[in-house]
Amino acid sequence: MAIELINLEHTFSEGTPFEHKALDKISLTIDTGNFIGLIGHTGSGKSTLIQHINGLIKPTGGTVVVDDLDLSHKDTKMAQIRRRVGLVFQYPEYQLFEETIEKDIAFGPTNLGFDKEEVSKRVVEAMESVGLDYNEYKDKSPFDLSGGQMRRVAIAGVIAMKPDVLILDEPTAGLDPRGRDEILEEIQTMHDKFKMTVILVSHSMEDIAKYADKIIVMYKGKVEFYDSPSSIFKESERLIEIGLAVPQVTELMKKLKAVDPLVDEGIFTVEAA
Ligand code: ADP
Known about the structure:
The structure is a single chain. The strands form two sheets. The protein has a six-stranded mixed β-sheet, with helices on both faces. Strands 2-1-4-5 form a four-stranded antiparallel β-sheet, with helices on one face. It has helices at residues 46-53, 78-82, 101-111, 116-129, 134-137, 147-159, 177-194, 205-211, 229-233, 236-241, 247-259; strands at residues 3-12, 20-30, 35-40, 61-66, 69-70, 85-88, 165-169, 197-202, 214-219, 222-227. It is built from eleven helices and ten strands. The longest helix is centred in the last third of the chain and has 18 residues, at 177-194. The protein has a domain at 86-162. By secondary structure, it is of the alpha/beta class. Adenosine-5'-diphosphate binds at residues 12-13, 20, 22, 40, 42-48. It comes from Alkalibaculum bacchi.
């Protein structure tokens, strides 16, 4: 499902002393089935952008179109958007609320109006996708799980709605390195299996460079770069300027280039500052 942003703008508190332009004339197309990494310093506009792609925020200028649905149109209903675009918020485990894992994951597809049989099928499939055994976990309380497992339940709740576009806001935040790698691998597997378009928001170049077809780099409400990971790594000096890489990487790169001028910048994965 192609996503098209045309001159997208968002100004918070327009016309007041607190007026703030969070998104400034963003135009880009995300092709169906792509795995997109979205990176930028805190406050660069990542959250505001993804909330436009799932209709939670309406633009103050420009348009957001997902396939044939104009999300920015005043008559477009949230229910229409929900079927297409799923958003996993930061720390989604705080939004779990049902007594059992099965009920929690069933909530979304039930609300979309699917019958019991279809909902059950989706719950089993979604749990398997995030590595939770259905029979072992279905009757447990989500609150008896570890943080990483709770997060899996929350992600499964969105997967069970079978969105064409899955957006995840910092899905690895607060997890240990092992938990982080496991979740990212599961997201990659789901992307391949369900042929979903994935937008993964992250602070970590390392995390997204490994999985993304293309990376959107945001800076002060604008898109600074939108390209393949290898092309973006060639911009290491600018990445450092906008707070997205540790300076040592450039220093090290200079030293390596002195030895071998053809050394490929892509050998580095840089972590956000
Ligand atoms: P990021 O997700 O990259 O950290 P955000 O999209 O949350 O960035 O924020 C972009 C800018 O918009 C920031 O300067 C932030 O303070 C501002 N902002 C975000 N939400 C609101 C809001 N509800 N009201 C006013 N300003 C906001």
